[in-house]
Structures are given as C-alpha cells and as structure tokens.
Fold:
Amino acid sequence: MRRAVISAALAALLAAGVATAARAQDETPKLPRERWSFSGPFGALDLAAAQRGFQVYNDVCAACHSMNLLHYRDLSGIGLTEEQIKAVAASKTYDIIGDDGQPTTRPGTPADVFKAPYPNEKAAAASFGGSYPPDQSVLVNAREGGPDYIYAILTGYTDPPPGFKLAEGLYYNEYFPGHQIHMPQPLHDDQVTYADGTKATVDQMSHDLTTFLYWTANPEEVQRKQIGWRMVLFFGMMAGLTYAWKRQMWSGLH
Amino acid sequence: MIGLHKSTMKNPVIRWIDSRMPIFSMMQNEYGAFPTPRNFNYFWNFGALAMVMLMIMIITGVLLAMNYTPRADLAFDSVQRIMRDVNYGWMIRYIHQNGGSMFFIVVYIHIFRGLYYGSYKYPRELLWMTGVILLLVMMATAFMGYVLPWGQMSYWGATVITNLFSAIPLVGQSIVTWLWGGFSVDNPTLQRFFSLHYLLPFIIVGVVFLHVVALHITGSNNPLGIEPKGPQDTIPFHPYYTIKDSFGLCVFLTLYAAIVFFAPNYLGDPNNFIPANPLQTPADIVPEWYFLPFYAILRSVPDKLGGVVLMFGSILVLFVIPWLDTSPVRSARFRPLYRPFIFVLVASVIVLGMVGAHHPEGIWVILGRVGTAYYFLHFLVIMPLFGVIERPLPLPESISRPVLRPPGAGGGPLPGGATAKPMDKA
Amino acid sequence: MAETSAATVAMHGEPDTGKRDFLQLVTVAGAAIAVGAIAWPLLDYMNPSKDVLALSSVEQDLTPIAEGSGITVMWRGKPIFVRHRTPTEIKEAQDTPLSQLIEPQPDSERVKAGHAQWIVLIGICTHLGCIPLGNKPTDPRGDYGGWFCPCHGSQYDTSGRVRHGPAPLNLFVPPYAFSSDTKIKIG
Structure:
C-alpha cells in the first residue's frame, strides 16, 4: 500500500514536475501575483468586473483585436440581459450578399460572431507593420502565467532603462519576453467612462479587462468548479464506503 | 443435445442464451470464480484501472467525434465550439484530454509493477509482450490525438516527430512524404491522423483481449513471485477483488475528477491555444509529459539517426526483457542486490522526463546522456548480470504459509530474516 | 487459512447483520446515483447545442413582400412560405364551405387575427414531402389559386388547404407571432 502510494506520487511528480519545467525560461521578471475572483477551487466570477472588462474590450481593444470564438448571445454568461445583448449586436454592421447578389450590410444579431476589426489576419497584420494583434478569445490560456501575465503586460509599460536599445516602432514593456512589444500602451487613466461609475484607472481597467478575458477563454469555469466539488466529494465518499465494504468482506480471510 | 454447452445458470432466459453462447458461464469462470492469489497488493489494481480508462476514452472520444471537424482550417474552431456551444462539451473534452494523461499514469505504474515483481518472467513472456504492444499502440494513438486540436504544439510536435523518419537511410524522405500525404504536415496529415486515432483504440481493445487471455492461461503473478500451490493460496476474483478494485477505482476517480474540474489545463501547454501557424515556430517544442523521457533519449545523441534508433530502441528493448533477466527469482523483494537499481531506473526515467522539458543545453545535456546511458545499462547489462551474480533471499514456502521455519527447527540453514507479508492488510 | 472455503465465500460473506446490509445498500445506491448522474451529461451532449438553438427562431421583415406575391424563408431546415394575399384571395379562402375541404379547417384558424392578408405555411407537401410551387405570381398555382405540387399533382388553395390529392392534409402552419405589424418571428 505504502509502495503504491509512493509510486503513484512519483508518477504524479513526473507529470507535475515536468509540466512545470516545460515552461520556457527567460530573463523577464517574475509576474506580479494578482488576486482574481476566479482563482482557486472556490473561484467564482466577479460579474461586475467582467462587464466593465467587456466595456473596455468593446471601447478600446476591439479596434484592433478580434474575438472570433464568441457570439453576442454568449454575453449572458457575464450577466447581460437579452435587451442589452441585442443592443450590442445591433450596434455592429455585417457584410452580407443581398438577395440581388450584390454586397450589402445588415445590423448584427445575438447569433452573430463578435465583429472583427479586420476582414482577415493579413489585413490586421498589415496595419501594424506585419505584427498581427492576436485574437483574444483564448489569449489568457495561450500565455504562460495566464491572467497574471495579461495584467502584467497591460500595466507593465514603462520607460526603457538607460542604455536599452529600443527598435523603431516597438515599445518597452517590463514583462513582455524581450521587453519590446508591438502594441503601444493600450490603456490610459479615464480612457473609458464605466457605466457603473467606477473610476477607470489603468490598474482598474487592466484588472477588469483581464477578468473579462479570463471569462472569454474559460466561460464554463464557475459551473465546472461547482460540479467539481460535487464529483470530488462524491467519489471521496464512495471511496470511504467501498473501503469499509472491502475491509468487512476481507475480514473473514484470516 | 448436439454441441450445446451444459449451462449451470439458474435463470431460464440466461440459461437459454448461455447454452447456445456461453458468455455468462465464461464471465462466471474468468471473473467470478477465477482463482486469484490472495496476497495482491494495491499495485494489482492498475490493470483494471487501465481497462476503465480505455472505456472512458472510447466513450468520450466517440462523443467528441460527433462534433469535431478534421480539416486544417476548421479543426481548432470545432474544438472551441465543443467547449462553448455543445451541452457539457467542455466536460467531455476535458475528461478526454486529461484521460490521456491518467491512462499513461495508470499504465506506467502497471509496467513498474511488472518490472518490480518479475511478472514478465516465465511463463508470462507473451503477457508481457502483448503489454509492450499495447504501450506502443497507446503512444501512437496519443501522439495522433494531440495533433487533432491543430494548435501550435499539435502542428509543430507532429512536424518534429514525423520528420524523424527522414533519418532512415535511402527511403527516409519518401516515407515522410508518404506519412504526410504531402510536402509538410498539412490537411491530408490531419485527416488521416483523425481516421487512425479513431481506429487504433479498437485495435487496443483487441490486444487487451489477447493480453487477458494470456493472463488467464498462466494466472496472475503476486508480490512474492511464487506460484500458488493450491486453493489455500487463492481466493475467487469475485467478490474479493471486485470490491478491492472498486475501492481503488473510487480513489482514482477522485484524483481524476480533481484534475478535470480544478486544473484541466495544468498538464497541457499554453501554446496549444494558439491556432497552428506553419510560419511561426514556438520557442519550445515540447511533447506531452508522458513522452518526455523518450524525447530526452532522442535528443541525447547528436546524430539524428542515432537518436531515432535509441528512442525506438528504448521501447523495443522492453520486448526482450523476459530473456535479458537471468534471475531465477521473480519478485524484487527477494533480490537484495537488484532491488535498489529498479528505483534508480525510476529515478533516471523521471530525470529524463525533466531533461525532455528543457532546452538541450548546459546541465540538461549531461543529465540526458547519463539518464539514457543508465536506462540502457539497466536492461542490457544489469538485468543479465545481476541475475547471475546475485544471491537472492530465501523464498517463502508458499503464499499462504510465508513464514519461514525458524532456524534449528528441523530444516536447512535458513536465516530467520525476510518474512513476506502474507496478504494485504490495508 | 483452510476454513476459507469456496462455500462460505459463495454466500457473499458471513451471516447478515444490519450494519453490513446498510453499508452495502448505501454503497450500491451511491453507485446507482453515479451512473445516473454521469448518464445525463452524456445524453444531453447530443441535444441541440447552443448555436443550433440560437438559430431556432427566425425574424422576417414583411415589407418587401408585394401583394399577391410570396417568399420562401428557411426555418429549422424547412422552407416556410410567407404570402401576402390579395383581398380576392382572402375572400376565396374565407368563403369556402367546409364540406368541400378534404381536411376541413376554416381560414380564420390558419391566420393571425387582424393579419388575414398574411399566410405563413410550412412549404412541404403533406403527401410525400416535395416543395410545392406557387410563391411567385408566374408559378403554376393549381386550380385553387394557392400552390401546386409538381411531384404528384396535389393542389392547395389560398389558405394552404389541400383541395386535390393525393396529399391527405393541409399545409402545416408553423408557430409564429407578429412582433410588429411588419415583422413576424417564426419559432
């Protein structure tokens, strides 16, 4: 039994240790660890923060970044009402082929995918000197450090240290690998007027936007953790019951 | 009555079926009353766990295939649609994705049990070899499965591993072109990987059947490594091991559920959330954790063909272990010289895993070469040699009477030392 | 050791006690609950997904449809006929005696109150499933001014009711409602 536990732990160590070790090492500073509403096994989602984050995305980021995996109807997941969703969708126009076969436009509906700022990746990259502003749907999951990384980038714009050679068209960021990022600082104080009146500092907006982006990448997270507790407790209970039954059944064998 | 099976089933409907196709009698014999050593420890749970994992992977895989699109321009988005729009799609996907890891954890522990207790030795050589076949097919299945989401790591992992075959002299590049169905990993590659990924698990089911048949001919090994001498050494599989396996299953499912529901992407790579881009290579191309030791062996040799030969060799050497190990004693419990080296082997595999996760530079190069050297040394030198030079501890009389007769009590010059545990006392 | 005979074991253990029974009952019940709880997501997985449900209703603007003309719009994979009836067509539909109908049904049951000029039908012939002709004024409409099915010759009137077989039933009316005077929501 003890050997089995040790073996299982060693196998888990292999899995966990190398999974951690597989992260690329670079010389950028350690990410600041933020507190997130969704962290940990009891994580829930701060809906107010996510809604403010959506406002930041819609007003600032959507000018350059697409969100191709989300539909407007998905916004009910951060608490928007059907009316609000219809209004958001209707504020975007979509190119379609009319009944006469000619290109025309129509307003968006909740069933539509989020309107992308550029028709395709190449057009987007061409507007930024060849660097494509990545789609944000799963960006939080696509970066080592996840939400901490996104928050660090958003708040990490500073002047380069003396002697640092900053290339043309790039900007200095404390936490971007190599420190030279194509994106200019996207957020400035009071850039957005929050619907709920919260003061829109860079820190606040970064926090809210990151919460929103975590939700776009992991919309199932709250339900997943709720079910998770039920599963773990249930199987744990069943482990206890089957163990008792096993002991009882085997007790006659001495 | 001509040829009908003499069924002992009580229920008339079951008896009718059983006399024409004795599946119920077979289940009763092979899983009901089957005499099983009474002294299994919890290492013997892992075969049953592997069977459960195979079933879970097939069920979740078939469900995922209802919504997955195996086309290069649609695959990534189809997986995201499963995660977002399909009812419980995220759950089925995470169960399948992490199930691959759980399957390998279970199988690696199952293999360790075989190595430690000498389950590969006479007469269980074919049992062991069908097992190695299963490992190979599992690895092929997992490799192709990881390509299907068509993320950056899917694409580049496929590119690196398929490119290895070009190291084969003369025909290497033709083989690679044939595998790809084109001039690089692209849509034809993805589509055929999907077809094969769906097929191979059913091949696994077939080989598992052979594996269990082989087991039931010889009977199970046990922690003492000595054969049962009579019914006093065995108990019927049901209900003793059915309940013990149920308990083990519940513990396993608790861990599995914790990973699926609380850390579903922990064992994965963030790069796979970026759609495959043939024009941009990630900074680190890393396979899934269960391939890391083999990846390290591959990179331990500067020569491309040498690395490929060693990597495949590291699995093929497993086939011949029954003939490499010369010890007359099965279980490492009674092999005091050899026993610590099994743990060195485990440690070297873990170190090789860590090596595989890092850039091949600095200390990782040295560790990789040392680990690889020990791996082959263990099987090709230590196993044959130690069986001959080692003086094993005296074996117990039998499974049910494992206590040695005390010295002087009419018998040989047996030391009063090693007493094996008679049965599991969990 | 020797007393562990097959006979004792075959009885699934020793004589029952209440505690033993309870343990076994709770464990088996737990296993049954697990099976049920796991079966539901596996089944629900195959139910219509969110993107399918999002397209399960269709809004149609009626203003481009001229009087006497009709359009076909797709809803849940089926063609829907939306025709703007002329006053003559409405009168014909309303005045037909029920005794003359193969499947008697008054026109008022097949339109929305106050919107008799709009007829909305599932455009699938109730015989063997072909799509009848008749939306465009230039289409053959049969003898009753409604729709004509070219496959086997069924004919429908201006209310979509079958007047000449082999179709047995009137064209079905899908669930729909007027969200405004010029817009309907089907489904």
